[in-house]
Write a structure and sequence with these properties.
alpha/beta, TIM Barrel, 8-stranded parallel barrel, two-stranded antiparallel sheet, 10 strands, globular
Length: 305
């Protein structure tokens, strides 16, 4: 089982100092989240909100650095880490922008990018970017094969690519640079459409939230049913990657049980539980997060073998 450190809500100015520590202590990757902005008048309900009014769990002043700027910067100061978006709201952007940003980051990182995608929930972001909100799921279903086509170079066509789908029509074109290896695309979320999308179109699945053990087993069972339906059950743990997040204290026995169930990757955030005496003290706060990151690597990752 591989472990990825989630960095959503980590102070942006600490990221480039923390991620080399993550790289050197046995983590497999960094897990990056995405939002464009926080509207002052927010009417959309956050999918995973614990509140009756459906409001997000973060404040309006929370940092949401652009994933591809961040991945490119982190790739420059690391060697081994992969970078997974969990999740990138791809249908809130146009196809060409997504292809260009992700493809460039994949090249800069030397093929260490894993594109996790989801449909999003914040209608205000779609309105602002001029993308249709109500058909975002169908557009994402078409965007996934379109991206793969745009990043592929065929000698038979002289390097020109094209794609003709239900929502996107790409005439013969070149968009350089392009990745020298396929970018794995993972489907995020635990709704039935999201599980179906992952099983039908993607190279893996990303948990929609940090689950209890029982919730995790429930969604894994539903995912397996979709994979069976699509003739892909044999790929579980053998090419089809499964990223899971658990809202429990670190537990090696629990991790091993999920590894046996086909989970390939675990999302964690040990820096979140670091004991910071004064958050205004930059050095002290960062040192505490580094210590928590190192402790998790020693107490969990190294023992998992």
């Amino acid at each position: 089982m591989r472990f990825h450190q989630a960095v959503a809500f980590l102070e942006t100015d600490q990221l480039l100092e923390l991620c080399p520590v993550v790289d050197e202590t046995g983590y497999a990757g960094i897990y990056v989240s995405d939002h464009i902005f926080y509207p002052q008048e927010l009417r959309s309900r956050y999918t995973y909100s614990p509140y009756e009014d459906g409001s997000p769990i973060w404040s309006p002043d929370a940092d949401w650095p652009d994933p591809w700027c961040l991945v490119s910067a982190m790739a420059a100061v690391t060697t081994n880490l992969t970078f997974t978006t969990g999740v990138y709201i791809a249908p809130a952007r146009d196809l060409y922008t997504v292809a260009k940003l992700v493809g460039t980051a994949a090249v800069i990182s030397r093929n260490r990018v894993r594109l996790g995608v989801g449909v999003g929930w914040c209608k205000e972001e779609f309105v602002a970017t001029g993308q249709e909100f109500h058909n975002r799921g169908r557009r994402l279903d078409d965007m996934i094969p379109a991206l793969r086509a745009m990043w592929k170079r065929s000698p038979e066509t002289g390097g020109w690519v094209e794609y003709h789908g239900s929502h996107y029509d790409v005439p013969p074109m070149r968009m350089n640079p392009v990745p020298t290896a396929p970018v794995p695309i993972y489907g995020g979320g635990h709704s039935e459409p999201a599980l179906s999308r992952a099983a039908r179109l993607c190279d893996g699945w990303l948990a929609g939230s940090a689950y209890t053990v029982d919730e995790a087993r429930h969604y894994l069972a539903r995912l397996r049913e979709h994979l069976v339906r699509n003739g892909r059950e044999s790929e579980i743990g053998n090419g089809f990657e499964i990223y899971l997040a658990l809202g429990i204290p670190p537990d090696i026995d629990v991790y091993r049980s999920f590894e046996d169930a086909g989970v390939t990757d675990m999302i964690c955030a040990p820096w979140m539980v670091a004991e910071v005496s004064d958050s205004r003290d930059y050095r002290s706060a960062l040192d505490a997060k580094v210590a928590a990151t190192e402790a998790f690597a020693t107490d969990v990752i190294a023992k998992m073998g």
